[in-house]
Design a protein that fits this description.
Blueprint lengths: L3 H11 L14 H7 L6 E2 L5 E2 L10 H6 L4 E3 L3 E4 L11 E4 L6 E3 L6 E4 L3
Parallel strand pairs: 3-7
Antiparallel strand pairs: 1-2, 4-5, 6-7
Length: about 120
């Protein structure tokens, strides 16, 4: 019985040689980078990708929430779900019996206050 290595070598000699592959001509690197560049991404003079231009939105979310008036409600426990339906957040229950007298939603930051009779 022949050794396994010798048998394997004989099998390899019987295999046909692979044909030379026909490849497409290579694209230049700059053209390849431009082809896969996502929308809004530009290249600088050195070829680095620039993803932002330094523009900052002045309307920070925390400032927009602070502009919302405190909602006065009759009950001592209220629920908040963001009010946007599918665009809202999970429903949370806020207890207004605490010493702070103002309850804040942990998701959207809306504030609620119990209206006393």
């Amino acid at each position: 019985m022949a050794a396994p290595g010798a048998t394997f070598r004989r099998l390899l000699l019987r295999l046909p040689l692979p044909l030379p592959s026909r490849s497409l001509p290579a694209r230049p690197v700059a053209a390849a980078a431009a082809a896969v560049r996502p929308y809004g991404v530009q290249a600088s003079e050195t070829g680095e990708l620039v993803t932002h231009t330094g523009q900052v939105n002045k309307n920070f979310a925390i400032d927009l929430i602070a502009e919302q008036p405190v909602s006065e409600v009759e009950s001592r426990v209220i629920s908040c779900d963001g009010g946007g339906g599918a665009l809202g957040h999970p429903k949370v229950y806020i207890n207004l019996d605490k010493d702070t007298k103002t309850g804040t939603c942990g998701y959207c930051g809306l504030q609620f206050k119990q209206k006393h009779h």
